[in-house]
Amino acid sequence: MTTDKNPPSPQPGPDAGIDDTQTGNEQTPNELGETVEALSGNADVNDEVKQKVADTKDRMPEKANEITDAAFEKADAAQSAARGAFARLAGLPKPSVPIAALIASAVVISIVVWRRR
Q1: Which of 57, 67, 75, 96 has its CA 20 to 30 A from that of 90?
Q2: For the chain, what is the domain count?
């Protein structure tokens, strides 16, 4: 297709001579060829878009599996960290030991104070 500001008219005017008609007849196949090329280029673009859509649809299940696997890995890591924290808390001295020590101290102090009187 031509991109001139004033494209040639598709047909010679009513007052055109033989030379104008022959020139128009020679230009018509060229213009038709350019039009066909432009249209086939558009068809190629449409085919490319359709192919990309099909490729994306094919990749969707794979991508979903990758994301799911990554989520499970992170959940496992969080669960392991929580178990480790719980194990550390379970390893601390039992509250009954300090309570027993306080009671024993109170008994000893009471006996000492009672004997001094």
Answers
A1: 75
A2: 1
